[in-house]
Amino acid sequence: MPAETVQISHYSDILCVWAYVSQIRIDELRRQFPAEVAIRSRFCSVFPDVAGKLDKSWKDRGGLAAFRAHVVQTIARFDHVTLHPDVYTRVVPTTSATVHAFVKAAELAGAAPEPLAWALRLAFFRDGRDVSQLAVQIAVATEAGLALEPIRAALDDGRAWAALLGDYDDAAADHVRGSPTFLLNERRQILFGNVGYKIIEANVHELLHHPEDRASWC
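Given the sequence above, the corresponding structure tokens read:
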């Protein structure tokens, strides 16, 4: 029998295409281990300045058009997600920070963060809406049936931004390299990027059934 619950910290950026395609793995993990796994959703900063990132990382590789092609090719590999034609053509968000702060505000207001984060990912990638804009964030939250006043309050008084910066600081301290990243075994095990479900599941099984092996052998 499993000895205890496996704690997983899941770091992602809402604008990250790999986090978009990997959500199905998190959903499957929760289905397979409803009582044995506890996943904490947190944010890391991959797209703090979208224009700046594209200029720095993609300028010599074809710029925005090349980055758009990369996103198209990535999503084409999976049949459970789709991409709106306006994404990175007519719709180019300015930053992921504002949408992250909005989700943190909703969490502080008592909402579960992951369903809202997923709704915002769908709004961007599937529906072609600029989720860096507050008006779009409010619209998505309204569609999800969330109360707006507590969310606005957490944004207005800075609590949401403080919580977000806490995520970013912890991501740096935990050596999170990008999105998505899974931290297990008290942050001793790091699974980063396009990691298949079976690899995540194998790590969970090992921690559940061999907890005595968690300590470092020195």
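The mean pLDDT is 92. Try to locate this feature in the token string yourself.
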